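Changelog excerpt

This revision adds worked examples to the README so contributors can see how folded entries look when concatenated. The first example is reproduced verbatim below.
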Amino acid sequence: MSAPRELVVELLQEKLSQLLEFGPDTHKEARWIQWHQEMRGILRNAFGEDSAELKAYSSLTRWYPIAGSTEQIRRETRKQWSQIIEGARGFLEALILQIKRFGLPCGTAETSDAIVTPRVFIAHGSESRALVLLIEFLTSIGCEPIIAEKMPSEDRSVNENVEH
């Protein structure tokens, strides 16, 4: 295997092992958002923005609106989350096997120069649906969101961290 192919397989295997750690309510946590962003970035850089792989992954991890009573919403959310996790697991396992057997498609990370992803700095007050939507939008247009509150602080405040 060439170095880029090995790197892509290694990154995808790492994402698969991290995925298996998500529980029934982890869709509410920032680590899911970060995992999802990183996964999209790996697929975008390895296969391209318009690739079938990125489109398939995006389709598997899409949330659909849920209506009903609080209990119905909770039940449907857990069901949808379970389907997303299982779909992503199967997708990753199949993709890893495909890359190991056949390599990366022509014109991807194996045969082209590295793709530079624009980085966008975000400073916000707290975790919210708006933040999730902003992150999803930025990643969908090919940007890598950098969230101020998630940056290593070395005992600095968020404002001091931004200035640093």
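The second example, added in the same revision:
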Amino acid sequence: MQSKISVVIPSLGRVSVLSTIASLSRQTILPSEIIVVLNSSKNTEKVKLLLKNLNRSVRIIYEKRKGASFARNTGMKAAKYSLLFFIDDDCIAKPNWIEESLRYYKKHHPSAVKGHNIHTDTNNIYSLMEYYQNEYITKASLFNTNGVIYTSLLDTKNLFLDKEIIMKNKIFFDGRYINSSYEDIDFGRQLLTRKIDIHYNPQMIVDHSGRTLFIQHMFREFNKGRNIYLFKKKWNKLNKIIDGYQNRLKYRFLFEANRTKKNKIEAILKKRLLGSKSWSYNLLFYIILSLSKIGVWIGYYYMKFCSSK
């Protein structure tokens, strides 16, 4: 008997959600239901009309509270089935995304699995930068034990959850985080405090388009800094609980990852992504990387300043 599957797509009203849905319609194992949670007034009516014209049935839900966390919580609660997938509205799932996820689930029975994200648009430097950053933190957070790869980080653009376990433990996305950043890492920490392992499946692949403009990229980095402050403030009191569980699994979070390991990962990534690029492209990449760090720093201390008032 084929497993029943729900796929939730939080959407900002971007037309790209149609391509995401199309990729789900090409799956070797089709989802039982697709839920689009519209979370923005921008293009909402246009996207709603386009979705209604699709041959495949798609459930449309509105979430008036702005923020990806609210949209994901609404979608998770609305999902009919326990096998629950999340994908973003600017991502394309590989044709065997669901099939590979179910194969992994039947073998290991995880409650949470982070998939592998790729960026095929490597010509755009901002998309490449985002891919570099995501790959860096992903690789730094992995630990292999007894043939199973674990991670301390979640990424909601490519995520599988056992809804029954999640709801039983009353784990939800925190709506205090700003503009889709760090709410997934926070969700991962909630899982770990309840001793729920986070698996990593490199065969569960989606293609993410990434940011394409400088202002989009820097706004993302600024908000990342703001959310890092909120994250550290929230979890500082719970570090002892987390650390005890980390030691049991014999891996550490990104923030405490071995520096040698991180340097090695960084060198490999830069060689793979920038090795064939011109010196001028490399120079621009490092300039943007430095500006990104400044953007995070400004966001962090801006939030700290606002919180002290």
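Reviewer comment on example two: Confidence is low (pLDDT under 50) at residues 240-257. The longest strand covers residues 199-208.
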